[in-house]
Design goal:
By secondary structure, the protein is of the alpha+beta class.
Length: 92
């Protein structure tokens, strides 16, 4: 389900991974499932899209990247790929 930026970062907590550098990238969408968090990012330099799928690391309980991709031509393309990854479809 779609969530707000604030909900996304609140879920990550203070020990979550760092976000993208605002000079080069901007977060545009945030997603959450039962056990995953996802973010869609626009690259301001290349004018393309990327996404990151995160899960809880079973060893330390922190959110970690478990899948990602860059170079999508549209926000819709990045969203579709993220959703496939979040349900276990991989990043092909």
């Amino acid at each position: 389900m779609s969530i707000t930026r604030e909900e996304f970062h609140e879920t990550l907590g203070p020990d979550g991974p760092p976000g993208p550098h605002p000079r080069f990238h901007e977060e545009r969408e945030w997603w959450k499932s039962d056990d995953r968090l996802g973010v869609i990012i626009r690259d301001k330099i290349d004018d393309d899209w990327s996404w990151v799928n995160m899960a809880i690391d079973p060893f330390d309980g922190k959110w970690r990247c478990c899948d990602l991709a860059a170079g999508a031509k549209s926000q819709d393309e990045a969203r579709m790929a993220l959703h496939l990854s979040m349900i276990g479809g991989g990043s092909e």
